């Protein structure tokens, strides 16, 4: 990852799901080395906001900008800059743990060999389960498979993680915190949701409470 400054900007975002308007006039800017913790009660719109930030959802109003350019204009160029890990881990039951790592990484534009996937799985404590079909894994193990992508050599600058700590045991939480802190120390950026505070270190560690909608 280079040392150039990058920015993710939410500009006047408004979001509706179904008939319900979740938020409006939402603004923030995140730069290299910074992390933003999205907080709020169940149903306040944290996952919906993450989906807007990664381009999976479209805002009712406003826009998401990457280095000043609306992400709709950047398309795949923007997608190559990020990893999005949704709340419901997108794990394919019929694929083995290592095949899931290869597929999810390749789909996000980062080539990943079997050996690289195996190394990533070892680093999240799943070396012994690499050949098992995902359907045979526990919830916490499935979560680890989803997060193994973060242990691959090269991470894109922006991580968008929805409840990354859910279902993980304490050692796995600590491993993930180390990975995220390493990413931030190298100039990466992170937007995440969690209902439990975690020991993350960033040049600037902001909180955005969707219940309050206080601008950061
Ligand atoms: N596909 C959908 N269609 C209609 N409404 C939806 C859809 N997905 C989510 N919603 C609604 O949007 C609101 C916000 O949901 P969202 O998942 O963004 O909340 P959240 O803050 O991430 O919640 P949690 O803390 O429980 O994960 C909820 O009221 C939910 O019912």
What does this structure look like?
The chain folds into two domains: 8-81 and 160-216, 3-Layer(aba) Sandwich (Rossmann fold), CATH 3.40.50.300; 89-155. With 216 residues, the chain is an alpha/beta fold. It has seven helices and nine strands; from the N terminus they run βββαββααβαααβαββ. The two termini are 26 Å apart. Helices cover 30% and strands 26% of the residues. α4 (97-107) packs across α5 (114-123). β7 (158-162), α7 and β8 (189-193) form a beta-alpha-beta unit. The structure holds adenosine-5'-triphosphate. Residues 17-18, 20, 22, 40, 42-48, 87 line the site of adenosine-5'-triphosphate (ATP).
Total domains: 2
Total strand segments: 9
Q: Name the strands of the widest sheet in spatial order.
A: 6-7-8-3-9
Described by the principal axes of the CA atoms, the overall outline is globular
Q: Compounds present?
A: adenosine-5'-triphosphate
- Sheet/helix structural class: alpha/beta
What is the assembly state of the chains in this entry?
Answer: single chain
Parts with pLDDT < 50 across at least 5 consecutive residues: none
Give the percentage of residues in beta strands: 25-35%
Alpha-carbon Rg, integer: 17 Å
Amino- and carboxy-terminal Cα gap: 26 Å
CATH homologous superfamily assignment of the largest domain: P-loop containing nucleotide triphosphate hydrolases
Order of helices and strands: EEEHEEHHEHHHEHEE
Mean pLDDT: 90
Q: What is the CATH level 1 assignment of the largest domain?
A: Alpha Beta
Query: Helicity, in percent?
Result: 25-40%
In CATH terms, what is the fold-level topology of the largest domain? Answer: Rossmann fold
How would a crystallographer describe the biggest sheet?
A: 5 strands, parallel
CATH architecture label name of the largest domain: 3-Layer(aba) Sandwich
Secondary structure tally, helices: 7
């Amino acid at each position: 990852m280079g040392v150039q400054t990058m920015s993710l900007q939410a500009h006047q975002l408004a979001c509706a799901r179904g008939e319900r308007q979740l938020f409006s006039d939402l603004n923030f800017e995140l730069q290299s080395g910074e992390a933003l913790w999205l907080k709020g009660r169940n149903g306040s719109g944290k996952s919906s906001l993450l989906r807007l930030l990664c381009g999976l959802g479209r805002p009712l109003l406003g826009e998401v900008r990457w280095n000043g350019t609306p992400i709709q204009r950047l398309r795949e160029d923007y997608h190559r800059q990020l990893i999005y890990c949704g709340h419901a881990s997108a794990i394919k039951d019929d694929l083995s743990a290592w095949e899931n790592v290869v597929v999810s990484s390749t789909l996000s534009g980062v080539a990943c060999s079997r050996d690289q996937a195996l190394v990533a799985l070892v680093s999240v404590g799943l070396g012994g389960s690499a050949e098992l079909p995902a359907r045979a894994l526990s919830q916490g193990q499935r979560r680890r498979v989803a997060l193994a992508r973060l242990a691959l050599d090269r991470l894109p600058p922006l991580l968008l993680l929805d409840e990354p700590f859910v279902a993980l045991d304490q050692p796995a939480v600590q491993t993930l915190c180390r990975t995220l802190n390493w990413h931030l120390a190298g100039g990466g950026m992170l937007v995440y949701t969690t209902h439990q505070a975690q020991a993350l270190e960033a040049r600037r560690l902001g909180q955005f409470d969707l219940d309050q909608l206080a601008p950061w």
